[in-house]
Amino acid sequence: MARPRSFDPDQTLGALKALFWEKGYEGTSMQDIEAATGLGKQSLYRVWADKRAMYLAALASYARDEVTGLVQMLDGDGPPRARLAALLDGAVAQADRRGCFLCNASLDQAQANPDTQAQVQAMMQMSLAAFTRLAGGDAAKGAALNAGYNGLRGMSAAGLDRAVLRKAADGVLKLLET
Amino acid sequence: MARPRSFDPDQTLGALKALFWEKGYEGTSMQDIEAATGLGKQSLYRVWADKRAMYLAALASYARDEVTGLVQMLDGDGPPRARLAALLDGAVAQADRRGCFLCNASLDQAQANPDTQAQVQAMMQMSLAAFTRLAGGDAAKGAALNAGYNGLRGMSAAGLDRAVLRKAADGVLKLLET
DNA sequence: GTAATTCGTGACCAATCAGTCAATAATGAA
DNA sequence: TTCATTATTGACTGATTGGTCACGAATTAC
Questions:
Q1: Which of A110, A132, A149, B79 keeps 20 to 30 A from A73, CA to CA?
Q2: Do the chains contact at B148 and A149, CB–CB below 8 Å?
Q3: Which nucleotide shows the minimum CA-to-C1' distance to residue A53?
Q4: In which band, very low, low, confident or very high, does the pLDDT at B1 lie, cut at 50, 70 and 90?
Q5: Does a structural domain hold residue B104?
């Protein structure tokens, strides 16, 4: 018996994720958020307590979508080498400048906020575990693959040529066959 | 024929580097800078035009110190494997939460500022070239090593256990011997 | 000593920050 | 329809942002 919300919070969360991913926590203002979502502050604050809650929700959304996707790809069907190749090819092909939201969060927010840190570590562990499974349980190989993949995305974010990214991906792929 | 400056800008630059490295551009306020350097705004602004100039100077200082150090270590004496091992051991032992200033800058500032982007790319190229030399000219291997090293530092920044970092370092080291 | 010039300090600026409040609009239950 | 309840809007808050200005202190050239 009350007025219903006129927007879909899940959809708004997508916009929040894109914003924070691109501009970081400090780099995103409430004004940016209002503009990107087309909503007033009050509507937003009614769903999330404050800006930090919006950020954490966006990060959780990233974990749900992207990290889960990564794990599924690594745990998928076919020979391990093909699965890894598909993942790396995707990273090379995308080649956006945003990097990995998770890694960005780790760098600029984790130390400033315990909740963020916990979420980042949990996601990193999931990714690490998936890479280790892919490497047939070889923990060193799994950890190195995880490092290689994250590093590749970092190089992509730095704006390196796609040719270089291609080579890096090839090199990382070889790591699986040692 | 005028009053001399009462502080050493180079020394101040060290404090600026540490600050921006730890907290990022947006996360560092002029108030923080005044506190960390013990100087008033006017003294700072007389040396650097604005906050952005301070950031770029700090980044350049990082390039001069750390990136040059990395390159020298990779180009040093002894068997390549030992040089790489020393670098990786250092990354594992340090295990701080700041990550690589260069990578942080790439992620949160490069897209917002062309000067930063240029500097980041130049440094990344230097690092990449050094890794490729280490790999005996094998571009794919060099790029993968670069990715692995940066990824390792990212994992360190994310706060993963040193044991995991150790394993990742071992895995990356194996990459050299393929 | 004196003039010229730069330095350092603290008050000050408009703009922006995240967040709040009061008033109005819209809805469903009765 | 009426009423209770929630959503939305926009004005507003105090705090903080990066940056400036004016003034007194310090120093060197002469």
A1: A110
A2: no
A3: C18
A4: low
A5: yes
- The CATH number for A63's domain is 1.10.357.10
As for how many domains chain B has, the answer is: 1
A159 to B107: CB separation less than 8 angstroms, yes or no? no
Question: In this complex, which residue's CA is closest to the C1' atom of nucleotide D3?
Answer: A1
Instruction: Confirm whether A76 is domain-assigned.
Output: yes
Main-chain dihedrals φ then ψ at residue B101, nearest 5 degrees: -55, -40
User: Is the residue at B28 inside a domain?
Assistant: no
CA B16 to C1' C2 (Å) is 40
pLDDT digits (tens, 9 = 90+) for B78-132: 999 999 999 999 999 987 888 889 888 887 777 778 888 888 999 999 999 999 9
Residue B157 lies in a domain: yes
- Cross-chain Cβ contact B104/A99 below 8 Å: no
Residue of A nearest to B129 (CA): A164
Contacts (Cβ under 8 Å, ≥6 apart) of A148? A168, A171, A172, A175, B144, B147, B148, B151, B172, B175
Statement: residue B162 has pLDDT above 90: yes
Nucleotides of D under 7 A from a protein CB: 3-11, 16-22, 25-29
Range of the domain at B154: 52-175
* CB-nearest partner of B140 from A149, A171, A178: A171
Identify protein residues whose C-beta is within 7 angstroms of any atom in strand D: A 1-7, 39-43, 46; B 1-4, 28-32, 41-42, 45, 50-52
